[in-house]
Design a protein that fits this description.
The chain is of the alpha+beta class. It is built from 12 helices and 9 strands. About 40% of the residues lie in helices and about 15% in strands. The strands form 3 sheets. The protein has a 5-stranded antiparallel β-sheet with strand order 3-2-8-7-6, sandwiched between helices. β2 (about 90-95) and β3 (about 105) form a beta hairpin. The protein is globular, with a radius of gyration of 19 Å.
Length: about 325
């Protein structure tokens, strides 16, 4: 049995379950949290929180931030330049600035295999259960088994011992920070007994099938980060925990390489493929820029994994430069 076959049932269920809950989150939470108290607010955080600072809205003050002008043409020019190289066949891009909602997409309807990106969905599914039963994270001992079929193109640092048991929280940390497939398999017992996949896939318009991967667009996947940032699916405690894990992601050849080591980035990458059928490499996340937190999601397909890394880091760098050039400090009005 291949790695894809092993992961398929879990990926289909978890993505369907979490994306289905997005419907409720989108209807009731985005507007409230992205423009709270009728004003815009700067990203002044307390205790380095990674969720939306509007969740701490101070009704005695309002803040004004400069509205970013869309820079779609600059990103599109760069994508056209990259895709002239035969090593890459497709790039999709999505940008959203959280303070004022500026957003745009390029090829945003193209569908990709999400691969390890859906580890976020599994984390969210377990944390959702922990809201009502916190002990599930610390008291359940789950066996961690190293599987040869779980080999990954991007190496995983691992200090877990095969055959030993670990808490769900430790396994989630390993799954997100290191993108460890074996940690994902170890967490399966916590989510595989649910019956939501068919109903939720139909609800959100995704094809449901058990014999191949569900496909996702940059726009669809970006919603998961919006839900975490606005704490509109998980409560704030678990949204913070999720974003803290994501901010420690060790993959440094994508968005991280483009924005620099001194910038906080909560992100997740996913990769799939081999040198025969080609590769897919994606990196999506929240970049914490003063007064202008933004979300960027880049998905790529091509024949050279290293070149795909170059494309993602180059687009992330251009995005960061555009935001930096336009950004201004918030003006407080008493």
């Amino acid at each position: 049995m291949t790695t894809r076959q092993l992961m398929m049932p879990l990926i289909v269920f978890v993505f369907g379950f979490v994306m289905g809950m997005i419907v409720v989150g989108l209807l009731f939470s985005f507007n409230k949290n992205e423009q709270s108290c009728g004003v815009m607010r700067s990203n002044v955080r307390q205790n380095q929180a990674l969720t939306n600072p509007l969740l701490e809205c101070d009704s005695n003050h309002s803040y004004i931030t400069k509205t970013l002008a869309p820079f779609k043409s600059e990103i599109n020019k760069l994508i056209l330049k990259y895709t002239q190289d035969p090593r890459i066949s497709h790039v999709s891009y999505y940008f959203r600035e959280f303070n004022n909602g500026t957003w745009f997409g390029i090829n945003e309807e193209e569908k990709f295999n999400p691969a390890s990106l859906l580890k976020i969905a599994l984390m969210m599914a377990v944390f959702k259960q922990a809201e009502s039963d916190p002990k599930i994270l610390t008291e359940a001992e789950l066996p961690y088994i190293t599987r040869e079929l779980a080999l990954q193109n991007i190496p995983v640092d691992n200090d877990l011992v095969s055959g030993a048991s670990y808490s769900a929280e430790r396994l989630i940390e390993q799954m997100i920070v290191e993108s460890d497939n074996n940690a994902l398999y170890a967490l399966e017992p916590l989510v595989m007994d649910k019956e939501y996949e068919q109903e939720i896939h139909n609800l959100i318009g995704l094809e449901y099938t058990v014999d191949r991967d569900s496909l996702v667009t940059v726009a669809q996947y970006s919603v998961l980060f919006r839900l975490l940032y606005n704490a509109s699916y998980l409560n704030r405690t678990y949204s913070e925990k999720a974003l803290q894990f994501l901010s420690r992601t060790k993959f440094s050849d994508g968005i991280r390489a483009g924005v620099g080591e001194d910038v906080v980035v909560a992100h997740k990458y996913g990769e799939r493929g081999d040198g025969y059928d080609g590769f897919q490499l994606h990196d999506c996340g929240i970049v914490y820029y003063p007064n202008h937190d933004y979300l960027v999601c880049i998905m790529t397909r091509g024949t050279d994994l290293d070149y795909l890394k170059t494309v993602i880091s180059g687009l992330a760098a251009e995005t960061h430069q555009q935001v930096s050039a336009q950004a201004s400090e918030a003006v407080q009005i008493k």
